């Protein structure tokens, strides 16, 4: 989704901004642009397409200036073309701004401004704001004009604004779209995402909704929208540059698939060893403040989107089986507008890699406003969901750059397993039952290592099925969500039509699709529903359908039934999703690579979906 990078300091800003834009590419975008204060002027260059095209357009033009703003746009209002790209300016080209988010009342505001003779160049909602600031600027200084304009806006924004009349100053503001100020030595780098600024500094200030920062070469001051001073703490980033680069892998997605053993180890570190010794609870510091309330909850609603939603489904099976807490999983986009039944004993859990997904954030706000306890399972430290929930746990899987989520998913399930132990221990779960899960969890990283080492075989299978235009993914109980996730991965990365189904539903419709050209991927480990799955596989075979099976090591019988088999180690049934998903991630990856697609930035997708 859209990305912002801005610079105020002593250095020439254009190269810093271009480099920052490249770091934001992974988020998915369709055009880019840059504005730099250059002596008395502000120079803007914009281009549809990749940052490379913007660089070509800039060519040998030496734009020098120590203040600048830049943006990668993911079109929402108006086509992805040069004109609709950011930065946008007012009529006199005094005000230049980049905007993430959506101004919901832009049409109303546009009409109001058109009556006052403002002329618009683009179809965007963002340009309206530049004109609104111009309008207020007729009687007010830069900052006051910005504050007045912001008061009139309905919607979300992350903004960086410069003015020709008050050069040397930048205003940045946030409401619903993340913005971070990186504080360096005599300079500030502002970005919508820390990965664009970690190469400059590890000291950051996270702006909260309704906050506005005024930045110049001497420093920054932060106020709320009513111009009342706000004191902010500087946080230290724990991510480093090395972690956000490819490290020898051809793609971030493959690197992140291979990083899963380490990510799971990081997620477990310090959380279960003490528990195994003192027979108490897993160590989950983020749940401490709400521990007493957690004992009383009798209903859980998990809200999430996409891949995170599927990890939530795995969580439902775990919570209900081991902790005995009734659990619903809902798409955050549905929850936020639906009147679900909440009470003081309901906990609403948001699961999100980015911690910024607009729908998930809105769902949590809705739950909070209705008195529910809110919890977060989030990867990005300091993100909005992590800050706005009453408690939670970080997944600690490090930066996930590939647009398709992989390591975040297995880490989310790790946290869900830890929470199952916690909720279970608070109720009737015995220490020995919990200990069994803890001990098995510790073995999972090694098991995932074994699966990823099998990458060549998985690549061969992907090659064999290259002509298939459809896939049916099936699994049952704990692996039904994995069938859904497997289908989502191949859709995203290979643009192949795939459907995920609980295997018991096959006979109620999808089996009609099956013929020799429509292969099925069956997740069929040796678990409590193994026999049921075997029947499903036989029914597909009887209709000429091809089967790729994900089976448990040692299941020789599967070789006789399925056309191709990918083996995973044996583990507890509740933890099989953490293993079964890995070959499916790799299958989708190789399928996409063999088809020649950009697997790290699939078409039409964005890493962090910060608009509805
Ligand atoms: C799939 C994918 C998306 C995200 C979804 C939620 O590979 O990446 O479906 O899972 O947009 O994102 P987060 O987890 O950041 O809330």
Topology at a glance:
Elements: E1 3-8, H1 13-24, E2 31-38, E3 41-48, H2 51-58, E4 67-73, E5 88-89, E6 95-100, H3 106-115, H4 126-137, H5 142-151, E7 157-163, E8 170-175, E9 180-183, E10 188-191, E11 203-206, E12 211-216, E13 219-224, E14 235-236, H6 252-258, H7 260-268, H8 273-278, H9 291-296, E15 299-304, H10 306-323, E16 326-331, H11 332-335, E17 346-352, H12 358-369, E18 373-378, H13 384-388, E19 391-394, H14 407-426, H15 431-452, H16 455-464, E20 470-475, H17 480-494, E21 497-502, E22 520-524, H18 530-541, E23 547-552, H19 556-561, E24 564-568, H20 576-594
Parallel strand pairs: 15-16, 15-17, 17-18, 18-19, 20-21, 20-22, 22-23, 23-24
Antiparallel strand pairs: 1-4, 1-10, 2-3, 2-4, 5-6, 6-7, 7-8, 8-12, 9-10, 9-11, 11-14, 12-13
Outline of the structure:
With 612 residues, this protein is α/β, with parallel strands linked by helices. The protein contains 20 helices and 24 strands. The protein binds fructose -6-phosphate.
CATH top level class name of the largest domain:
Alpha Beta
The tally of structural domains comes to: 3
The gross shape turns out to be globular
Structural class: alpha/beta
Gyration radius from CA atoms, angstroms: 25 Å
Q: What is the CATH fold-level name of the largest domain? A: Glutamine Phosphoribosylpyrophosphate, subunit 1, domain 1
Q: Tally the helices.
A: 20
User: How many DSSP E strands?
Assistant: 24
Return residue spans where pLDDT drops below 50 for at least 5 consecutive residues. Answer: none
The ligands found in this model are:
fructose -6-phosphate
Mean pLDDT over all positions: 93
What's the main sheet like?
Answer: 8 strands, antiparallel
CATH architecture of the largest domain: 4-Layer Sandwich
Strand order of the largest sheet: 3-2-4-1-10-9-11-14
Distance between the termini: 11 Å
Helical content, roughly?
25-40%
CATH superfamily of the largest domain: Aminohydrolase, N-terminal nucleophile (Ntn) domain
User: In what range is the share of β-strand residues?
Assistant: 15-25%
